[in-house]
Structures are given as structure tokens and as C-alpha cells.
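ingest -> validate -> predict -> emit
validate: passed (alphabet ok, no gaps, 305 aa)
predict: started
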Amino acid sequence: MSPNKVAGAGAGCTQAAQPRPRDWLLLVSLVLIWAVSWPVIKIGVGQISPIWYGCLRYAIAAVILFGVVALRGELALPPRSDLPLVVVSGALQMATYSALTALALTILPPGRASVLAFSTPVLVAPLAAWQLGEKVTLRISAGVMIGCAGIVAIASPSFAVGGKQAMAYAMLMGAAAVWAITIVTVRGHRFKVSALSLAPWQMLIATALLLPVAMSAEGLPRQFTFLGAATLAYVAPVATAFAYWAVVEAGRRFAASTMSMALLATPGFGLLISAWSLNEPINSSLITGVALTATGIRLTIARQS
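emit:
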């Protein structure tokens, strides 16, 4: 998920006057769940082909969230005014993003991949200026340039080898770009119903789009291994269904600046977890890139504080 915002997740939410300890626990849990999900998905796409992995992930999560929404008495078709944005979010934020990141993770280590995939805010600022006419201050411009320098530093090892690695980095930047497009598309939109009630429909759209792609590009799924199924058992219900509910709930209780800074820690934790669990190497280019990207993101989201 993007550290800037989940598209539409905070729409219509009101913030509590003072977050309680359990609210902080929810926010910390959300960061750790997403951080862990990167090495878990890395393992998963080594067992299940990547497009099928994304398809199954959203199919399972959609079923769970349909159940949650039904229990809350909010199950209904999306209002007509919300439908175009539900389609955009399902197609770009979920289907395209998950497919590109899963394909990239078949090649790249998860920690490095997570930092680039979370670089979305660096791309949102110029896109919002172009499409929405938002003012770009000197601080935001500096943030975009610093963030781009961090992206280059992280991807620099691929410059020498090219080939699949360069393609994987391009996929990650494509994933960040489609998420940025989604964010700009929904910015300022007033949803008629809660973001949570729209989430299973978005995931259903993602599943419907990924299914024919998986069938045509990867054929029928191979026999699942226990390890592949175990990763899906974490990613679909926990890192997708529960995490989407959690980000909506946390968005009601915390200021946007607090949410942004907390979620900004996700790729850092993901990198540390990947280094510990999968022996992902941490070198100077990665450290420099993480520092520059984090600084750039912080500067570009400063106006939300």
C-alpha cells in the first residue's frame, strides 16, 4: 500500500479526538503486517505463478470482505456515482499493481522491491499538478527530485546487468505509477458509501481482470504446494482483507500526517525482515536509495500535515 493514502480508504471518515492505545496497536500492526507481506509474497510467487497468485489473493480477500460488509448490514451494489472510481481502483490499484509487483518479485529481493513500490507519493505530486492544477511548491519539487534520485540509487545495480533486473525495476515503477494515477483520480471525490463497503467490489473487479490474464499467460495453476498455500493464507486474509479494514479504521483515528509517516516505515521494516529471513544483502546503494526516497516522500506529503 502507498504511504500517501489508500485510494478512497479515508473517504468520508471522521477522526477521533485522541487515539487510544488500541488504535496505536492497530496502526503498528498494519505496518508490520504489510512489511512481512513482501518476503511472504516473494516466497509465494516462487511456488504459485505470479498472476495466479494475485488473482487468488483478491478472490479470497473479496469473499472475506463481502462477508464482513454483509455482517455490518452494508452489502449493496456500488452507487452509480462511485462506480467509475471503483473500477479504476480495482483495475489499477489492485489488479495491475499486484500483477506488476508479483512479477517483479520473481526476480528481485523483496526489501528492495518494497521501497520502490512505496515510492508512489513522489509520482503523485507532479501528476496532481498536471491533471488537477495543484500547486507545486519548492519543497515538493525538492522532494520529487530527491525521491527520484533515491529510485535511481536503488535501481543502479541493474544498470550494469540490464535484462530481467532492469525489466523488474521498470515493473515496480509501473506499479507505483498506476497507484499514483488511482490516487489522483479519487482525490477530492466524495464517496456516497463507506470505503469498506466498496472494497470487496474493487477486489472482485481485480479478480475478474486477473483471471483471464492468468489463464492465457500462465495456463491452469499447477498443483499447489503447502508452502504456497501457507503464504496465501497470510497474504489474502491478513495482508489484504484485514489490512484494508485496518487502514480504513486507522484513517478514522489518526491525522493524515501520522498515517503517512507510520506507513512510510513499512518498506524499512520490510527490508530488515527480508534481510533477516531471506538473507537479502544490504549494500551502500540500497541504504543511500532508502534514505533519499524516504526524504523525498516526506517532503512531498508535507502538505498533508
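The longest helix spans residues 226-253.
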